[in-house]
Amino acid sequence: MLRSPLLLLSLMTLAVGAAAQNPPAVALSTTVAGGAPTTAPVPAPVVYHAADEMPSFPGGEAAFAKFLRAKINYPAEALNHGASGKVHVSFVVDETGRILDAKVVKGLGFGLDEEALRLVRIMPWWKPGRIGGQPVRVAYTMPIVFRALE
């Protein structure tokens, strides 16, 4: 008698785990001849990890360094603890050069992770990546270096 509820619970756990791993596709509702609505899955935009021409900060690395120097606000908590190092931030540069989905992939804490995300979110639009001359979405990971000067 106890075996049935345990088996049901196990099956429910498997179903919930599978649903979490495979999120449902977004459906687009359309109307076909005769007025009956249908749904067709809308594919997620393709994001490349490499491109013929990778995305770049407008003005290059020198302009990026200048941007960081002008905009950085070193967190007091990091200064108090003498924290410095690299925060790795990943994001997607879309076809127009906008920065999307920024997140810390390797952080340092002490407020430096939040500051790195803030800097990425206020960056000007980038020059988009290209494949075959066409702009594409490209995933990008970059380190933002924090050095506490004493």
TrEMBL record:
<dbReference type="InterPro" id="IPR037682">
    <property type="entry name" value="TonB_C"/>
</dbReference>
<keyword id="KW-1003">Cell membrane</keyword>
<dbReference type="GO" id="GO:0098797">
    <property type="term" value="C:plasma membrane protein complex"/>
</dbReference>
<dbReference type="GO" id="GO:0031992">
    <property type="term" value="F:energy transducer activity"/>
</dbReference>
<dbReference type="GO" id="GO:0015031">
    <property type="term" value="P:protein transport"/>
</dbReference>
<keyword id="KW-0812">Transmembrane</keyword>
<dbReference type="InterPro" id="IPR006260">
    <property type="entry name" value="TonB/TolA_C"/>
</dbReference>
<keyword id="KW-1133">Transmembrane helix</keyword>
<keyword id="KW-0813">Transport</keyword>
<keyword id="KW-0732">Signal</keyword>
<protein>
    <submittedName>
        <fullName>Energy transducer TonB</fullName>
    </submittedName>
</protein>
<keyword id="KW-0472">Membrane</keyword>
<keyword id="KW-0653">Protein transport</keyword>
<comment type="similarity">
    <text>Belongs to the TonB family.</text>
</comment>
<feature type="domain" description="TonB C-terminal">
    <location>
        <begin position="59"/>
        <end position="150"/>
    </location>
</feature>
<keyword id="KW-0997">Cell inner membrane</keyword>
<feature type="signal peptide">
    <location>
        <begin position="1"/>
        <end position="20"/>
    </location>
</feature>
<dbReference type="Pfam" id="PF03544">
    <property type="entry name" value="TonB_C"/>
</dbReference>
<dbReference type="GO" id="GO:0055085">
    <property type="term" value="P:transmembrane transport"/>
</dbReference>
<dbReference type="InterPro" id="IPR051045">
    <property type="entry name" value="TonB-dependent_transducer"/>
</dbReference>
